[in-house]
Amino acid sequence: MEEQNLSSIINVKNILKIKNQACNNNNSSTNLICDIDLKKKKITNDTTEICQIKMQSDNIDVDVNDINDVDNIDDIDEQIEEKKLLTIDVLNYDCLANVLSYLSIGERLNAEKVCIKWKDAIDQLGWHDVTILNCFDYDFVRKNFGKRFMLQSDLIQVLLKCGKYLTHLSIVPKYNSEIMSYISEHCVNLTKLELYFNVYYDEHFINAFSKMDKLKYIKIKNYIRQRISGITNDNGLLISLPFDIEEITFSTPSLRHSALAKVFASSLEKFTALKSLTLSHWSLEEQVIKVIGRKTTLKYLDISNCEVIDAESLSSLNNLEYLDVSDVQNIDDDLLRNIINNCKSIKHINISNCIDITKYSLNHLGTSESLKELLINGILNFDDSIINRLHDIKILECRSCIDITDTGIIGILNNSPNIERLDISDTGTTILSLKTAADITKNRINNNNKKLYIIARDELIEKYDDINNIGKFLVIEECKKKKKIITDNRRNHVNYNIQYRRGRRVFFFNIH
């Protein structure tokens, strides 16, 4: 676009918020007042909003509203000249950049095309307010880039502009790991980084984080991994991370039980402040588990869906609060019992589908005074005698525990009056458990009480006919897909809403 001298024109929207912002930040003696006149004009075949920004000085007695409607840009310029109006170009760089900072990210990129001064102002001062870039946030992307989704080229352009100001960056699996070179070079002040790649190359992560000495949280999840030849070359990942990083998530669901590099264990040793570690879907060698067991700073550990030979070292994590070893083989009674004995702060345990666990260690769960969340899906040895030992539980999932009956569920409802989530699908329970839950939750009478969500089988929900007995603190959901919901909206009749989803008829029960 050619540079405009009297009236700077830009095809952008939503600039009305800048009124008077310039004069609040202008250090010159002239008190400038921003006034904006939005002109709509047809350009080629596209209808765009033409935004004309005009500056009026206090010492010029001119009413901007007197400017008549005109049909072309030249007439606008003539009337501005006649009224002795000053343009936005009289602003200094600080003030101009502050004005333009009210534009969205996409609009700022377009604004740089107006003239050299605008480009310089935005480059130097116009990106400092962009500290969070979350590509998962649909509203954020829509607001800043219109209806179209950001291409990788768009994202690169944004990183070149505002990368040095970013503290949080989340990348969706629309992009491949080639973008790491731009993140490494320009996003050096990040404290939180989330990367979901649809194509992942190990070599893109070698020394990728060497400049990010402020990084505290990193999450890398790849969907399609490339160039794998036996042992992976992921040693560059941990080596370049700062030693005081606090949270690491590294998962590869696309390739179950892929091997980590030989140097992974030694690289993991250097982290002295690690509080949270997630390594899911990997094959974890014994040495890696031993190193993890020495990380006594850990409070959160997730090694779900991993292949593990010996996990006994994990019982040394005496500060652990959250443990997820679901779908991990070789998790046995000794490990579970030692965790209960040694980890006095443990609040969450997920041992779903750990088939080697027996009643010997399950009976020991009730001795933990800190345990609040227990996920034990698929454990056939879990029965009423064990569940009745639990107290003050907030979350209990016992899906497919066929020996659980109404006796156990009614017991946990009585022993844990503030329970918030209960999965009883595919158990031996009946509608008696649902009726008991409805009666007990009626005692939750104030705002401090949260709702109880019960997940049950479809056929069990269909048999439950006492719908009017459900209070506002109880929600009953169908197992897994959660298509059928019973809840209370404080009215007295039932609406049956039939929808079709992917060719299947779905019923929604709404209590009004």
TrEMBL record:
* Keyword vocabulary terms for this entry: Ubl conjugation pathway
A biological-process GO annotation: SCF-dependent proteasomal ubiquitin-dependent protein catabolic process
GO cellular-component term (any): SCF ubiquitin ligase complex
InterPro entries, A to Z: F-box-like_dom_sf (IPR036047), F-box_dom (IPR001810), Leu-rich_rpt_Cys-con_subtyp (IPR006553), LRR_dom_sf (IPR032675)
Q: Which residues form the F-box domain?
A: 91-125
Judging by the UniProt lineage, the source's domain of life is Eukaryota
- Give the protein name, as stated in the record: F-box domain-containing protein
Q: Does the keyword Cell division apply?
A: no
Q: Could you tell me which SMART domains the record lists for this protein?
A: LRR_CC
Q: Name one Pfam family in it.
A: F-box
- Keyword Glycoprotein included in the entry's annotation: no
